[in-house]
């Protein structure tokens, strides 16, 4: 409870104003910016108090933030873990303090699922599968070998691990597809561009048929690198991204990107609803998925004005 508030305001009973600590991953992508805003707005609009911490993509910052939320005796913690492992100790500390944790967007890889109330987020493995299936369908008539370069998300993060797994599961069914290079671009445009430049230099752009980027920001950075190299993105190299942010729709409408798999960041209202249900005594499912779709180049111009993020 922050100074000046009464015991009742932060006591965490059903219908009360709650004090909610939110430890966010960072501000690495368009997706993340939209997600932060959605959660912040939903907490405030519901009349709760928000304590926000930007982890700047660093695990130690998130651990510090959670410890600070515990010291401040918040009612609930919303937590989007930058990587899957290494958070058990601090989550146990929150549990011992009687503060429920709601995992948002990213999961942790921990045995004891009593450390969190529920995990609300996308099915990243399914997103990887959708990307792989789109490629298989798109290249059904094309002879192999089809050389793919992959820009992975943050090393050790749930979306990087799962999107790789889902994609490989699907393309593994046809040996004409080969991932010839795979490296992290840390989910940022700048890194996506830098790593794509290195791929083009070492493999020769003409040898690369497909780019699979674990998010749109890295795909957009890579598109710049491909253009600077003198090739046409989406024509010479097929470009697959994930997120469905506005930047990807703009790139697709310009004919520079082929497809983006949706990962919906706008789940703030659903998250706040779940927190309130928990405090009203409702038993929540451990895993709640966000529904999403997939968008191709030919839909981009029409849908661009309707995109909210
Ligand atoms: O965890 C979701 C991922 O994190 C998004 O796909 C990516 O853009 C973000 O940085």
From TrEMBL:
GO cellular component, one term: cell envelope
GO molecular function: carbohydrate binding
TM helices/strands, residue ranges: none
Record keywords, A-Z: Signal
Residue ranges occupied by any Periplasmic binding protein domain in the UniProt entry: 20-261
Entries under PANTHER family matching the protein: D-ALLOSE-BINDING PERIPLASMIC PROTEIN-RELATED, GALACTOFURANOSE-BINDING PROTEIN YTFQ
Protein name stated in the entry: Sugar ABC transport system
């Amino acid at each position: 409870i922050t100074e000046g508030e009464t015991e009742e305001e932060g006591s965490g009973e059903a219908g009360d104003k709650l004090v909610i600590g939110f430890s966010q991953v960072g501000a690495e992508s368009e997706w993340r910016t939209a997600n932060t805003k959605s959660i912040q707005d939903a907490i405030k609009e519901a009349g709760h108090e928000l304590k926000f911490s930007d982890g700047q993509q660093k695990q130690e910052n998130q651990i510090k933030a959670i410890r600070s939320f515990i010291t401040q005796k918040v009612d609930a913690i919303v937590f989007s873990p930058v990587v899957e492992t290494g958070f058990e100790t601090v989550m146990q500390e929150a549990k011992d303090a009687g503060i429920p944790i709601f995992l948002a967007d990213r999961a942790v890889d921990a045995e004891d699922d009593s450390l969190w109330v529920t995990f609300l987020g996308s099915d990243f493995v399914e997103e990887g599968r959708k990307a792989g299936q789109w490629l298989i369908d798109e290249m059904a008539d094309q002879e192999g070998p089809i050389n793919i370069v992959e820009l992975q998300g943050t090393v050790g993060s749930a979306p990087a691990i799962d999107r790789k797994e889902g994609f490989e599961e699907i393309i593994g069914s046809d040996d004409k597809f080969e991932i010839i290079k795979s490296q992290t671009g840390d989910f940022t445009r700048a890194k996506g561009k830098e790593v794509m430049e290195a791929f083009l230099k070492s493999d020769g752009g003409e040898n690369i048929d497909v780019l699979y980027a674990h998010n749109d920001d890295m795909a957009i950075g890579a598109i710049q690198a491909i253009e600077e190299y003198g090739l046409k993105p989406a024509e010479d190299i097929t470009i697959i991204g994930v997120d469905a942010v506005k930047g990807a729709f703009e790139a697709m409408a310009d004919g520079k990107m082929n497809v983006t798999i949706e990962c919906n960041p706008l789940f703030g209202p659903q998250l706040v609803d779940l927190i309130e249900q928990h405090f009203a005594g409702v038993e929540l499912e451990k895993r709640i998925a966000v529904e999403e779709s997939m968008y191709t180049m030919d839909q981009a111009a029409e849908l661009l004005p309707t995109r909210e993020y």
